[in-house]
Amino acid sequence: MRVGIHQPNYLPWIGYFLKARLCNAFILHDNVQLNRRSYTRRCYLDKETLLTIPLRKQSREVLIKDVLISHNYWIDKHLKTIEHLYSKFPLFNARFERLVEIMQSLRTEEQLSAFNATLLGWMFGEFKVSAKISFSSELLQEHSGNTDSYHIALINKVGGTSYVSGLGAKSYQDDSIYNQHSIQLSYLESEKLLKEKFGEATKLSALHLMMQYSSEEITMILEKAEALFIESL
């Protein structure tokens, strides 16, 4: 059983969904400290357009599951920016209508993780993600130890035997610990697998691609990338 773990990011890049599609269980890691400069609260629509969700002043040690959004005025600003940037894209009307509907329904949502999870649920559906989605805070409310031991505990909790990690974790992750726990660790180079088709858009919010390609077109490309990844194991 293949498991992926990632923070519940705001309108994330297409590689996020490739990772989720590769997994039987995908854990939204909300039981860790928020990095306020991370993509949990922000996303790039192009190289110059960065959307950031405003947050209430809280402790620097606050966990993602406890992070609160400061107000809802930003929703209109983000939607206007998205409309301005994508109004001439081929699939803008249908995509934007649904996005507006979802974000307007979230105006009273104060928790960042819940807000993002709702948007992710929509995007998971568009990209045919079949993995069982759960929150780390619901699986293990408390855990002592380092990042690797916490990941292993989460993987064991959902019955995982294989862990798909992002390439960025290779610099600090201890591969040997996963081997000791009989967990097959593999690193996903999503940008390498998808860049031939999507180019620099692999670094942007997947919303950028959704405005240009149908869900079926994107899914077909993701399926090919999945096959290449699995062949490399």
Describe this structure in words.
The protein is an alpha/beta fold. The chain has one domain. 45% of the residues lie in helices and 12% in strands. The protein contains ten helices and seven strands. The strands form two sheets. A five-stranded parallel beta sheet has the order 5-2-1-6-7, sandwiched between helices. The chain has a two-stranded antiparallel ribbon with strand order 3-4. Strand 3 and strand 4 form a beta hairpin. Helix 2 runs antiparallel to helix 3 and helix 8 crosses helix 10.
Q: In brief, what are we looking at here?
A:
The chain has 233 residues and is α/β, with parallel strands linked by helices. It has helices at residues 14-21, 73-86, 92-105, 112-126, 136-139, 147-157, 175-180, 190-198, 206-210, 215-232, and strands at 2-6, 25-28, 42-44, 50-52, 132-135, 162-166, 184-188. It is globular, with a radius of gyration of 18 Å.
List the helices and strands and how they pair.
Blueprint: E1 2-6, H1 14-21, E2 25-28, E3 42-44, E4 50-52, H2 73-86, H3 92-105, H4 112-126, E5 132-135, H5 136-139, H6 147-157, E6 162-166, H7 175-180, E7 184-188, H8 190-198, H9 206-210, H10 215-232
Parallel strand pairs: 1-2, 1-6, 2-5, 6-7
Antiparallel strand pairs: 3-4
